[in-house]
Amino acid sequence: MTRIFPTFEQRKAAANFYRRDIEKQMARELANYRQFAESSGREFRFPIDADHVIERWLQIPLIIGSIAEVMPQLDKAVAEKCWGTLGRDQDGDLAIVIDEKLSSEYYDCPYRFTAIHEVVHWFRDVTAEQKHGLQQTLPFASGYVDPQYFRILCRYGEEEKYQERNANYGAACFLAPKDELNKQFSRWLESEKLGPTYLLTEAQPDTMRSALENIRRFFGLSRQAMQIRFQECGLFSAADQGTLY
Predict the structure, then answer these.
(1) What integer pLDDT is reported at residue 6 of this predicted model?
(2) What pLDDT does 125 receive?
(3) How many beta carbons lie within 10 A of that of residue 25, not counting itself?
(4) What is the predicted pLDDT for the residue at 134?
(5) How many Å separate Cα 238 from the centre of its chain?
(6) 20 to 30 A Cα–Cα from 4, which one of 20, 187, 210, 213?
(7) Cα(202)–Cα(240) distance, rounded to whole angstroms?
(8) CA neighbours closer than 13 Å in the CB half-sphere of residue 82
């Protein structure tokens, strides 16, 4: 039997389709969150408050601690590699857990990105039926328990890497939506007295660093995450700018 593998162009087209789908969904979710925040008397602004999104809007418990201790059913070797996860805690309750190593002020940007990364898993990788099941308290008991009741989104393997990449992209779309990023970039160009069609290039590393540093603070993203988001939104003229920091 002959197997026909998709061409590079076909794989690229499929990836672009899913990215557009993710971008549209995150725009809808962000609009929903904005409506929720403003209706409750809270000013909507950037950087997005990940804790408010999780605990107030989605009403999912948020735990800062050792993932291995909070979720003992998760393989210890896996838990040590995770910065964040979505599943059941030691009491059998649904929770998003962020590893305690991200709790310091120094890790504010990775913390925000990791938390919203788990939120994107909730939006995209958990079915309505699974959501209902996860939201029911299920105390731990001795003896065998069906693993589906303790479903944890902390993924490995080829398919899981794909889902992780999608969650990263979704988090970037939610925290730095393209329209707002373009608006902030235009304001930065104006403040630097640069033309509206200006593109950052590898030949101008100081200018690139200045743009990234100023705009990343507005969105509360790390330098690496902001650089990737600039590339995703076409604000770099080259496909691969390398590492600036």
Answers:
(1) 57
(2) 84
(3) 16
(4) 65
(5) 24
(6) 20
(7) 9
(8) 31
Q: What is the pLDDT of residue 216?
A: 97
State how far the Cα of 213 lies from the Cα of 190, in Å rounded to an integer.
Answer: 16
- Residues shown for the chain: 245
Assign 3-class secondary structure to the chain.
CCCCCCCHHHHHHHHHHHHHHHHHHHHHHHHHHHHHHHHCCCCCCCCCCHHHHHHHHCCCCEEEECHHHHCCCCCHHHHHHCCEEEEECCCCCEEEEEEHHHCCHHHHHHHHHHHHHHHHHHHHCCCHHHHHHHCCCCCCCCCCCCHHHHCCECCCCHHHHHHHHHHHHHHHHHHCCHHHHHHHHHHHHHHCCCCCCCCECCCCHHHHHHHHHHHHHHHCCCHHHHHHHHHHCCCECCCCCCCCC
Report how far apart, in Å, the C-alpha atoms of 199 and of each of 196, 234, 238 are: 9, 9, 9
With tokens 């690229």, the residue in question is 12
Distance of alpha carbon 244 from alpha carbon 99, whole angstroms: 27
**Dihedral in degrees, nearest 10, Cα atoms 165, 36, 176, 108:** -80
Which residue bears the tokens 């999104």? Answer: 53
Task: Look up residue 152 and give its two tokens.
Answer: 């944890």
**Burial grade of 128 (CB within 10 A; 0-12, 13-18, 19 or more):** exposed
Which parts of the chain register pLDDT below 50? 1-3, 5, 8, 139-150, 155-159, 239-240
Residue bearing tokens 């959501």: 131
